[in-house]
Amino acid sequence: MGIRLPGMLHAKQMLRRSLPNSSTICNVPKGYFAVYVGETETQKKRFVVPVSYLNQPSFQDLLRKAEEEFGFDHPTGGLTIPCNEDMFINLTSRLNVS
Fold first, then answer.
1. What is the pTM of this model?
2. Are 35 and 46 spatial neighbours (Cβ–Cβ below 8 Å)?
3. Could you tell me how far CA 27 lies from the centroid of its own chain?
4. Most Cβ neighbours (<10 Å): which of 20, 37, 47, 77?
5. Has residue 85 been placed in a domain?
6. How many structural domains comprise the chain?
7. What is the pLDDT of residue 82?
8. Shortest CA distance to 53 belongs to which of 23, 8, 86, 97?
9. Nearest-angstrom CA–CA distance, 18 and 88
10. CB < 8 Å & 24+ apart, contacts of 87-96
11. Would you say 45 and 36 are in contact if contact means Cβ atoms under 8 Å apart?
12. What are residue 80's DSSP bridge partners?
């Protein structure tokens, strides 16, 4: 009983095409989640933030803004927050202090 090598290679190629690009997959530590921040598609940057931010009213305001703009259909496949990067960094730095 032999293994058909061409069939296995074809299956591996199909699987590779169906999975996200490995360069876009990054591990997110337990207790954190990833968000994409930016006002345009070319400006989007990925941030990993603690889930404790979900309890903060100022972060909840950003989530409401994201819901109004995107609903539950986020173009990057992850949570997209439509604000500029400087504003997001300013907000999260204040959350880190409290």
1. 0.66
2. yes
3. 11
4. 37
5. yes
6. 1
7. 87
8. 97
9. 33
10. 88/37, 88/47, 88/62, 91/58, 91/59, 91/62, 92/47, 92/49, 92/53, 94/58, 95/53, 95/56, 95/58, 95/59
11. yes
12. 36
pLDDT score for 15: 44
**pLDDT by 10s per residue, the chain, length 98:** 555 555 555 455 544 444 455 445 568 899 999 999 988 878 889 999 999 999 999 999 999 988 888 776 666 667 888 899 999 999 999 998 86
Comparing CA positions, the residue from 11, 48, 10 lying closest to residue 26 is: 48
The reply to whether 86 falls in a domain is yes
Number of CB atoms found within 10 A of residue 45's CB: 11
Q: Evaluate whether residue 19 is within a structural domain.
A: no
Q: Would you say residue 6 lies in a domain?
A: no
Residue 71 sits in which domain range?
32-96
Residue 97: per-residue pLDDT: 80
